[in-house]
Design a protein that fits this description.
Nucleotidyltransferase, domain 5; 4-stranded antiparallel sheet; 11 strands; alpha+beta; 270 residues; single chain; elongated
Amino acid sequence: MILGYSRMRYMESTLATDVYTLIQCHQHAFEYFGGYTSEILYDNTKQVILKRAMKPKEHTWNPKFEDFFTHYGFIPRLCKPYCPQTKGKIENAIGYMKRDFLLGGVFSSLDDMNHQLRQWLSRVNGSVHGTTHEIPTERLKSENLKTLTSIPPYVVRREEVRKVTRDGYVSYQGNRYSVPFHHAGQSVLLEIQDDRMNVRLGSECLCSHVVVPGRSRVVREKEHFKGLLSLAMKCNSQCKRNTKPLFRMIGPEVERRSLSVYDRFSGDVR
């Protein structure tokens, strides 16, 4: 993000490009600048707009992003399609960052990359800009930003739909989280805010978890599987009683005679 007058730059590396990440990056940029502008220019990306119309009032915005810019009260503007000149400040800044910071960089993690990126921003924002011939941090004082204290913070609540697996888990960012087992096969809503995740079915909150880092981890609550073993044993017992054999073997038929017949023959034996 670049402020048009002062040329103050803000950059951040992320592992996702969804609308929730975009909103969080906005908040980080606003905090870095110490405020926000009354208008912001955007590319025609689906995280911002779903369908562009001839008149701005008829645009179909991404509902999550519309809720965000309505909360802060700034006006989103869109670049002309296939006209990269309208976003030249951003394109030039990204190219400069790639050459001056990213190329040849060594990073131990995403947090380390962003830490070094903040240090680089402090240097370039404190140096004379090639176009304005002034220092961005000095021009920032005349940017007339809206203060963040004038409006309550926007709460970023991520929502995603998941189906509970047969063994009673939902997946989120490569990790598995347990859900009360009797909800297996049902579609539930994941509400993620900061590092907490609520699993909801309609208006009911089924359970909560702390979102763990990494991948391929399993977060399991014993209470979610209480009664599962006894239910499984009961089902197995019912299945055995109700299950008919696939086939049966029968022996050869034997002729049955009255015992008097045997007595008659035995009497003739000498």
